[in-house]
Write a structure and sequence with these properties.
Layout: H1 2-41
C-alpha cells in the first residue's frame, strides 16, 4: 500500500512538471508572436 503512495506522488510530480513546461512553451510562443507582430508594424 505504501508503494502506491509513491506512485501517486510520482504521477503528481510528473503532471506538475509537464504542466509547467507547457505553460512555459505557451508564454514563449505568445511573446514570439507579439514580437513578430511588432516587427511587422515597424515597416
Amino acid at each position: 500500500m505504501n508503494s502506491l503512495r509513491f506512485l501517486y506522488a510520482a504521477l503528481a510530480a510528473t503532471a506538475l512538471i509537464h504542466g509547467g513546461y507547457l505553460v512555459s512553451l505557451f508564454r514563449r510562443y505568445s511573446r514570439l508572436r507579439r514580437q513578430m507582430k511588432d516587427l511587422g508594424k515597424g515597416k
